[in-house]
Write a structure and sequence with these properties.
The complex is a heterotrimer of chains A (551), B (574) and C (158). Chain A is of the alpha/beta class and 551 residues long. Chain A folds into 4 domains: 107 residues, 3-Layer(aba) Sandwich (Glutaredoxin), CATH 3.40.30; 211 residues, 3-Layer(aba) Sandwich (Rossmann fold); 84 residues, Ubiquitin-like (UB roll), CATH 3.10.20; 101 residues, NADH-ubiquinone oxidoreductase 51kDa subunit, iron-sulphur binding domain (de novo design (two linked rop proteins), Up-down Bundle), CATH 1.20.1440. Helices cover 41% and strands 14% of the residues of chain A. The radius of gyration of chain A is 24 Å and the shape is globular. Helix content of chain B is 35%, strand content 14%. Chain B is built from 19 helices and 17 strands. A 5-stranded mixed β-sheet of chain B has the order 2-1-5-3-4, with helices on both faces. A 4-stranded parallel β-sheet of chain B has the order 11-10-13-14, with helices on both faces. Chain B has a 4-stranded mixed β-sheet with strand order 12-17-16-15. Classes of the chains: A alpha/beta (551), B alpha/beta (574), C alpha+beta (158). Chains in contact: A-B, A-C, B-C. At the A-C interface, helix 1, strand 10, strand 14 and helix 17 of A face helix 2 and helix 5 of C. Bound molecules: flavin mononucleotide, iron/sulfur cluster (7 copies) and FE2/S2 (inorganic) cluster (3 copies). Flavin mononucleotide binds next to strand 9 and helix 20 of chain A.
């Protein structure tokens, strides 16, 4: 690699791309060329920094200065000031919500609370360059696993690390691999679940866009551990850039002999194929994903049998989430002991969260497990815009629970969130301020499930429709107390009797809002009044105008 | 296999490992309600009506799907279980038309029974009935998707048992329905019209096309001479419509009841079944001796005929040109019979009582009018006939037995067994052996071709000539056999196919409910009938000899060719 | 990119696509995707070729195609406008954006404008919730929309 005195990293994540980062990059390249800096300063496209709200984002190294909301027109000045004169361009520098001093990356509150294991390379390397991945220590873990460890050692290390699946269910990854390794049969599969359809979740997309090799390396280690020759990445159809980056990375890995026959001279044979989904949230459920990959309707299967015994094409299969797999290489490289220094006893390691809704820093963060909701929202997340009041946080995406202000100090890990009736889930975090109506948002959740139920089993097929129907009646003032009784019976039935977790979880957001925000439901049902003025059928004009939500 | 012990409602039971909770509960004498479960099908686990509590399980579990484990503790009647079942059934009912009184499945409907069993009184959800168009495009079946509860039982039957795949779940969520591709009318798809999906369906979403009104009208019309023929399989099943147990033979009572309904003559399709053996047997011998296309495939099952026209048109030259016994009967009733008794054939109205929905389609085929009229005017299934008996107030069980009218009512044991899988083959072999070898057959029972085994094969020695035969019932088995033949395997000379599992005793028009266990009982009855008959070989039927002498001349002759043989039409494969 | 909806179905092209994927396990979805890319939607004539080529029943192929929201078995407008209406977008004002879209296009969900240019559809989440509210037109995503900006976006496609 040739030596550059400076690197300019331009975020090419989808969020920034939508805000025009491509034009910024082109302008940078031409500007540098024009000034004869082409050989000194390298422009690198990277994955998401996590600060998508402030995009397009640009970081200049070695100083590590982060510039936000950069437009092509800003570029000449940026090159002039920072790269020629060595001065920071004040007006574009990232500012903390409460205007404070100029920041470089490591000093910012946004990054200070974060620990980057999964996102170690995101925003640091060019995701289209395998050389840069390797320069950051990439594929060393695979080398170590193949040359110094037996498959059983790998499984043991994963088990010791306590890594739990990041796709939502939190199942211990090592244990899953062990089951698959023990399962009979010479054909086995490793599948990466990149379907990511949970509203409010886009971490897997940004990992794949920003550091695709970390997932490939994780899958290859998994293949070695369980004895699989073929892997699939099932990725949702909307993720065009992730698909492209992944395909590029796979080509590079094959070319370097990191995929294919006899990897690292160890005799391991493994390759990965990308399969693209076609728009169905339920295909994120592992057995529905298999059905879809096999060419069917993406309907969940009955369990047992479990995927590690009877999975894809009826063969023993390990299926893991993108983020789970991105954790594997660091665990193998640094060991289970190191991994356990992060996070909590029951949920070791870090978790990537996507912050959405009424929060200053919408975007992607990675923090140790066990951090409180308050720290995430008010520390890293920068709080609620315009100083408005906090109303609720939904953890785990649309199938997660909705937590009120009293629970802001709950530690974020699998077990603690389960205790308060919610879930860590996919790591989506939706924050809502006090101008929004809780009943209205619960209606929106239920509409999601009505739309995404696969329709295979009765309680979910019909129940999601009824949930939405009753919620709509409440927000339009047509509900009676009898509806609440029915809602509760329906919720109990769905949670207990639906075939798969989609239907089982569908009532969760509704029932947690019901539990924690009962007064607001009562206002709608008994007084026919929407306290925030959001529900149009109930809002008196004066109220709705005041809340700025009128029609 | 090893056994496991578990506790169900406090009682210990021991069942083989791999059993489901439902199977274990049955053993423990505990009834668990089901809906999507069907004893002859794979586990689906979609209706969730059978949920039970399993200790240490986070959720309830579907008893029909969940495997037992050592030490498992199951409770089937707790408040949580009762509530879930009720809510689930109410969810279905709230979207289901309230049509029981006018529904073909009234009193025989599993959803209705379930609602009663669970004691449902109020449905807590608002009425949002499905309102989808009824499909009456075929003469055989009526599909009412508004009544469909998406249990997928018909999908299993149509794809796995019949190998057709005319129906499949489409769309998603609460819009999910089971439909033909592109919601096309059934007449435009690859459906064989076998009606097996009717037996699969727990509700009235697929039923036979009801033609009883036309028959009532004909019976009331003094101008019409109404004759009826009853298929071989009916006498072994019709009793079930009158509440008699499966496997009861009701030949004589059936004849009596048909007379009470007012038919002018009560004839028997068994007569033309014997005739079919003469024609088809001769065709086989002809093909064997002249190097014709082999194997010869039987042609008397119209479900099978429509299937092969769609899926194996290249094998149509193998199919016997013989019409089915029903159609032979119709052609002769309006020619031979009318002539012989001096009745204006235009006034003869032929009704057939069939096990079969496909027969309705067969009778309507444009080529089936060689008598100069539509050969068979109306086809009724055994279910429709049962309904007519009830409407007419005929107390079936109390009738004295009566005899068929002559001459089209005379038949043999060989014809009787047409109603069961392997029967046509066995009847043909009894005749072919004696015609070819000119020797008397010692043992009439060809047990190798009997019974519910998927594909049956046998080799018969006709005095040195080895005849390889195969029998398949159920169209998926037929498909398998056709694929073997296409690959050049088997070296068969003669192949019998019946579209329906078990043959016509399991036909799509037979009494509800038809399961494989019921089929076995009906098959037993068929072979009882055979043993009971004084004559058991088609070529020894005196009425058959007479019709060749008086009217037809000889098998495969000019007249036979015109009246008793037909041709086929290739159809689209998808 | 606009999807061109071709009138007569080029069955030879469909056969070629089927032949290309036939030997892959679970070929149906990749085939449907490619057929739709070239024909604009999945007409019966095309799926008949797919069913024959892959040895599947047409009802199954149809059942699979209608399961996924990115497959269309009926012709659609030239531009698919897919609006996210999930919670993260909703909290950021998706409802107002949807209202503006419905006003601007004059059609509601599932409908196509009379000139055949736009079909409006709702989707669950586009995975770009970081820039909510979001809309996808064909394969381009637009984020941080307001009732005003979404109208401007539509104007680009007029
Ligand atoms: C309705 C539903 C949707 C899901 N969606 C996803 C998804 O988009 N991505 C994912 O990784 N896991 C998803 N899961 C979880 C998977 O079923 C499975 O548990 C996971 O892929 C296993 O990987 P892990 O152990 O690494 O978490 C979903 C589960 C359900 C029930
Ligand atoms: S719970 Fe919902 S998504 Fe899951 S199988 Fe049942 S209908 Fe399908
Ligand atoms: S299908 Fe059953 S429940 Fe429905 S109307 Fe008919 S008899 Fe009644
Ligand atoms: S069962 Fe009830 S609803 Fe039906 S006819 Fe009798 S009284 Fe009426
Ligand atoms: S009649 Fe037979 S072929 Fe037709 S849909 Fe029913 S089961 Fe399938
Ligand atoms: S038609 Fe009948 S058998 Fe088929 S899915 Fe519907 S209810 Fe079930
Ligand atoms: S095959 Fe069936 S329908 Fe045909 S004659 Fe025999 S019993 Fe009747
Ligand atoms: S086997 Fe019998 S009942 Fe079934 S289609 Fe053939 S003739 Fe009809
Ligand atoms: S996509 Fe650029 S910072 Fe997230
Ligand atoms: S009978 Fe068990 S789920 Fe339907
Ligand atoms: S919620 Fe709208 S894009 Fe994810």
């Amino acid at each position: 690699m040739s030596f550059y005195r400076a690197h300019v990293l331009v975020c090419a994540g989808t969020n920034c791309a939508l805000k025009g980062s491509q034009a910024v990059r082109e302008r940078l390249v031409s500007e540098l060329e024009g000034r004869g800096l082409g050989a000194e300063v390298k422009v690198v496209e990277t994955g998401c920094f996590g600060l998508c709200e402030e995009g397009p984002t640009v970081v200049v190294y070695p100083e590590g200065v982060l510039y936000c909301r950069v437009t092509p027109d800003d570029v000449p000045e940026l090159v002039e000031e920072h790269l020629l004169k060595g001065r920071r361009l004040e007006r574009l520098i990232y500012r903390q919500p409460v205007e404070k001093a100029v920041q470089t990356v490591p000093q910012m509150d946004f990054f200070r609370g974060q620990v980057r294991v999964v996102l170690r390379n995101c925003g640091v390397i060019d995701p289209e360059s395998i050389e840069e991945y390797i320069a950051q220590g990439g594929y060393q873990a695979l080398g170590k696993a193949l040359t110094e460890m037996t498959p059983a050692d790998v499984v043991a290390e994963l088990k010791a690390s306590g890594l739990r699946g990041r796709g939502g269910a939190g199942f211990p990854t090592g244990l899953k691999w062990e089951f698959a390794a023990r399962a009979k049969g010479d054909v086995k599969y490793v599948v990466c679940n990149a379907d990511e359809g949970e509203p409010g979740t886009f971490k897997d997309r940004l990992i794949l866009e920003g550091d695709p090799h970390s997932v490939i390396e994780g899958m290859t280690i998994a293949a070695y551990a369980v004895g699989a020759k073929k892997g699939y990445v099932y990725i949702r159809g909307e993720y065009a850039l992730s698909i492209e980056r992944l395909e590029t990375a796979l080509k590079q890995a094959r070319k370097m002999g990191l995929l294919g026959r006899d990897i690292f001279g160890s005799g391991l044979e493994f390759d990965i194929e990308v399969r693209v989904g076609a728009g169905a949230y339920v295909c994120g459920e592992e057995t529905a994903l298999f059905e879809s990959l096999e060419g069917g309707r993406g309907e969940p299967r009955l369990k047992p049998p479990y995927p590690t015994d009877v999975g894809l094409f009826g063969k023993p299969t390990v299926i893991n989430n993108v983020e789970t797999l991105a954790n594997v290489a660091p665990i193998i490289s640094h060991g289970a002991k190191w991994y356990r220094t992060l996070g909590t006893e029951g949920s070791p390691g870090t978790k990537v969260f996507t912050l959405t809704g009424d929060i200053v820093n919408e975007g992607l963060i990675e923090v140790p497990m066990g951090i409180t909701l308050r720290e995430v929202i008010y520390g890293i997340g920068g709080g609620i815009p315009e100083g408005r009041g906090f109303k609720m946080a939904q953890t785990g995406g649309t199938s997660g629970g909705c937590l009120p202000a009293e629970l802001l100090d709950v530690p974020m890990d699998y077990d603690e969130l389960a205790k308060v009736g919610s879930a860590l889930g996919s790591g989506a975090l939706l924050i809502m301020d006090d101008t929004h109506c809780i009943v209205d948002i619960a209606r929106v959740f239920s509409r999601f499930f009505e739309h995404e139920s696969c329709g295979k089993c009765v309680p979910c097929r019909e129940g999601t429709m009824r949930l939405h129907e009753i919620m709509t009646r409440i927000t339009t003032g047509e509900a009676t107390p009898k509806d609440i009784e029915n809602l509760e019976a329906l919720a109990r039935t769905m949670a207990a009797a639906c075939l798969c977790p989609l239907g089982q979880a569908a009532p969760v957001p509704v029932m947690t809002t019901f539990k924690y925000f009962r007064e607001e439901y009562d206002a709608h049902i008994k007084e026919k009044r929407c306290p925030t003025g959001t529900c149009r059928a109930l809002a008196s004009p004066a109220v709705s105008l005041a809340a700025g939500k009128g029609v | 296999m090893s056994n496991v012990k578990l506790t169900i409602n406090g009682t210990q039971v021991e069942v083989p490992a791999g059993s489901t909770i439902l199977q274990a509960a049955e053993k423990a004498g505990v009834r668990i309600p089901t809906l999507c479960h069907h004893p002859d099908q794979d586990i689906k686990g979609v209706c969730r009506v059978c949920v039970v509590e399993v200790e240490k399980s986070r959720t309830l579990q579907a008893a029909c799907a969940f495997p037992v484990a050592e030490g498992m503790v199951v409770r089937t009647n707790t408040p949580a279980v009762r509530e879930a079942r009720k809510v689930i059934v109410e969810l279905m009912l709230s979207r289901h038309p309230q049509d029981c009184l006018g529904c073909a499945r009234n009193m025989k409907c599993e959803l209705q029974a379930l609602a009663q069993e669970l004691g449902i009184r109020d449905v807590r959800f608002s009425r949002r009935e499905k309102d989808l168009p009824r499909d009456t495009s075929t003469p055989s079946l009526v599909r009412d998707p508004s009544k469909c509860i998406v249990c997928r039982r018909c999908v299993y039957t149509c794809s796995e048992v019949q190998g057709v795949g005319a129906l499949f779940p489409a769309y998603r969520g609460h819009e999910a329905v089971v439909v033909p591709a592109y919601d096309n009318p059934m007449i435009d798809v690859v459906c064989s019209l076998c009606g097996q999906c009717v037996h699969a369906c727990p509700v009235g979403a697929i039923t036979e096309h009801d033609d009883t009104e036309e028959v009532w009208e004909a019976l009331a019309d003094p101008e019409k001479h109404v004759v009826v023929q009853t298929a071989p399989a009916i006498r072994a099943t019709l009793g079930e419509e009158a509440g008699l147990p499966a496997g009861t033979l009701v030949t004589g009572k059936m004849v009596a009841a048909l007379r009470r309904l007012g038919f002018d003559r009560v004839f028997d399709t068994d007569f033309t079944a014997d005739l079919t053996i003469m024609e088809e047997g001769s065709e086989l011998i002809h093909r064997l001796t002249t190097g014709g296309t082999l194997p010869l495939l039987t042609s008397c099952s119209p479900g099978w005929i429509k299937f092969i026209e769609h899926f194996f048109p290249e094998l149509l030259p193998n199919v016997s040109t013989c019409k089915s016994p029903q159609q032979m009967f119709g052609a002769l009733a309006k020619t031979y019979y009318a002539e012989k008794f001096g009745i204006d054939p235009a006034k003869v109205f032929v009704v057939s009582i069939m096990p079969c929905t496909a027969k309705k389609f067969e009778a309507a085929r444009p080529e089936m009018n060689s008598s100069g009229y539509r050969d068979v005017d109306v086809v009724l299934t055994s279910r429709e006939l049962g309904r007519m008996f009830r409407q007419a107030g005929i107390d079936f069980d109390r009738l004295e037995e009566e005899e068929f009218d002559k001459p089209l009512g005379l038949s043999t044991g060989a014809a009787a067994i047409f109603g069961a899988t392997g029967g046509v083959m066995e009847a043909a072999l009894r005749t072919a052996y004696e015609l070819v070898t000119k020797k008397e057959l010692e043992n009439l029972d060809f047990v190798e071709v009997r019974g519910m085994k998927a594909i049956k094969e046998a080799t018969i020695d006709l005095d040195g000539t080895k005849l390889n035969v195969a029998v398949a019932h159920g169209l998926a088995n037929a498909k398998e056999l056709m694929e073997r033949i296409s690959r050049g395997e088997g070296d068969y000379h003669f192949v019998e196919i019946m579209a329906c599992p078990g043959g016509c005793i399991g036909g799509g028009g037979q009494p509800i409910r038809t399961t494989n266990a019921v089929r076995e009982q009906r098959i037993d009855a068929i072979y009882r009938e055979d043993r009971r008959m004084p004559i058991r070989k088609s070529h020894e039927n005196p009425a058959i000899k007479q019709i060749y002498e008086d009217f037809l001349g000889e098998p495969l002759g000019e007249k036979s060719h015109h009246l008793l043989h037909t041709h086929y039409t290739p159809r689209k494969r998808v | 990119m606009a999807r061109e909806v071709k009138k007569a179905v080029d069955t030879a092209l469909v056969d070629k696509i089927v032949a290309k994927h036939r030997t892959r396990e679970g070929a149906l979805l990749p085939v449907l995707r490619e057929v739709q890319d070239s024909l604009g939607y999945l007409p019966q004539e095309a799926l008949e070729r797919v069913a024959l080529g892959l040895g599947l029943s047409l009802s199954r192929v149809y059942g699979v195609a209608t399961f996924y929201s990115l497959f269309y078995t009926r012709p659609k407008g030239r531009y698919m406008v897919r609006v996210c209406e999930s919670a993260p977008c909703h909290v950021q004002g998706a409802q107002e954006v949807i209202d503006a879209l419905i006003r601007e296009l004059g059609v509601s969900f599932g409908e196509t404008t009379p000139d055949g240019r736009f079909t409006l559809e709702k989707v669950s989440c586009l995975g770009v919730c970081g820039v909510a509210p979001a809309v996808m037109i064909e394969d381009r995503v637009y984020g941080n929309l307001t009732p005003e900006s979404v109208v401007a976006v539509i104007q680009e496609y007029r």
